[in-house]
Amino acid sequence: MMGSDKFQIKPLSLKDLAGLYDVDYRTIKKWIRPFQKEIGKKNGRYYSIAQVKTILEKLGTPMTISLD
């Protein structure tokens, strides 16, 4: 997605979210814990699109930094 400022929101697992923020899954779990009431319980393995949107609003958009 180089050169694009668009971000497609889709259902994501905890592991997917951790990869998006480039942190361990335990770290992302700690980060979203204070917002659990607003995010709600995930349905099965994935957070819904609405839940992912809430997580992104609370934690901010993940940034990828390239030192090339």
Question: Could you characterize the architecture of this molecule?
Answer:
By secondary structure, the chain is mainly alpha-helical. It has one domain (12-59). Helix content is 46%, strand content 6%. The protein contains four helices and two strands. It has helices at residues 14-21, 25-32, 36-39, 49-59, and strands spanning 12-13, 46-47. The chain has a two-stranded antiparallel ribbon with strand order 1-2. Helix 1 (14-21) packs across helix 2. The protein is globular, with a radius of gyration of 12 Å. The two termini are 16 Å apart. The model has no long low-confidence stretch (mean pLDDT 86).
Structural class by helix and strand composition: mainly alpha
Main-sheet strand order equals 1-2
Give the oligomeric state. single chain
- How would a textbook summarize the main sheet? 2 strands, antiparallel
The total tally of domains equals: 1
User: Helix content range of the residues, please?
Assistant: 40-55%
The end-to-end distance, rounded to whole angstroms, is: 16 Å
Rg measurement, Å: 12 Å
What integer is the average pLDDT? 86
**Shape by Cα distribution:** globular
Beta-strand percent range: 5-15%
Report the strand count.
2
Sequence stretches where pLDDT stays below 50 over 5 or more residues: none
- Order of SSEs, N→C? EHHHEH
SS summary, helix count: 4
